[in-house]
Amino acid sequence: MTELSMTATELNFDDLASEYAQKSPQEIIKFALDKFDNIAISFSGAADVVLIDIASKITKNFQVFSIDTGRLHFETYQFLDKVREHYGIELEIIFPDTEQVEALVKEKGLFSFYKDGHKECCGIRKVRPLRRKLANLDAWITGQRKDQSPDTRANIPVIEIDKAFSTSNHQLVKFNPLANWTSAQLWHYIRFYNVPYNQLHAKGFVSIGCEPCTRPVLPNQQERAGRWWWENAIDKECGFHSNNNEQVIKSGNSSQ
Fold first, then answer.
1. Residue 107: left (phi > 0), alpha (psi -120 to 50), or beta?
2. What is the pLDDT of residues 101-147, one digit of tens each?
3. Number of structural domains, the chain?
4. How far apart are alpha carbons 131 and 148 in whole angstroms?
């Protein structure tokens, strides 16, 4: 551990929430990397590459992982390799359990989510692999932003205890350094620093997930409107950030 490194139980989150609420992503990421040795950036989209770009300007010693559900777009696979090569990083690719995927497909086919909702498929292909990874980390860094969805992400803090993936024996910290950024700020950074991005963005895709469950959005639609478009807005989380739905329900701000 570094001289400054801490565990989650040593951090005062009430003080941190106040102190870092309006700090820049650079300051938040530097704090996260200084305080935790066992921390990783979760990478899948444009916001996450901004996290990688910022981290690369602070240190060369940081972890990055991505979940391959087996249903990603061809352009996304190209994007993963492009980011790996651009930053010269070791990108850890995590896969779902083969037997669980086979059992789901055998029982319900390849497109059961259109009828049953996406939670079961996402649980097998995304959430369980993520849980395996997070069980071995003390903290993780995500690219969540408040403006991505007023239905589920409007109140996300820049630093929080991840109650969805913490256990009685393992308290996990989640950093959301871009929480206060807008989409315009994100894309200004990407263009200014020539940050790699998924070519699907040039085809009208804004928030990009698995190929069967993602489509382009129309002008002035919410960023995540193209995800699981057949479901209610409050349900547009795959399980990576299920804390968000709990916060919405408690605040009474959910919409359909």
1. alpha
2. 999 999 999 999 999 989 999 999 999 999 999 999 999 999 999 88
3. 1
4. 23
Catalytic residue among 121, 210, 213, 238: 238
- 150 assigned to some structural domain: yes
Is residue 245 domain-resident?
Answer: yes
Burial zone of 45 (CB within 10 Å; 0-12 exposed, 13-18 middle, 19+ buried): buried
Euclidean distance between CA atoms 239 and 32, whole angstroms = 23
Block mean pLDDT (10 aa), the chain, length 256: 51 75 94 95 94 97 97 97 97 98 97 93 95 96 85 81 91 94 94 96 92 90 83 67 47 41
In the chain, the amino acid numbered 237 is E
Structural domain includes residue 137: yes
Is 4 inside any structural domain?
Answer: no
Q: Which pair of structure tokens corresponds to residue 139?
A: 């903290």
Cβ(17)–Cβ(163) below 8 Å: no
Please report, for residues 99, 102, 120, 212, the alpha-carbon distance to residue 105 in angstroms, rounded to integers and kept in the order given: 10, 5, 11, 14
Query: What is the maximum span of the chain, computed from C-alpha positions, in angstroms?
Result: 52
Question: Does residue 238 have an active-site annotation?
Answer: yes
Distance CA 144, CA 106 (A): 34
Q: How many CA atoms lie within 13 A of 216 on its CB side?
A: 8
Find the CATH number of the domain harbouring 36.
3.40.50.620
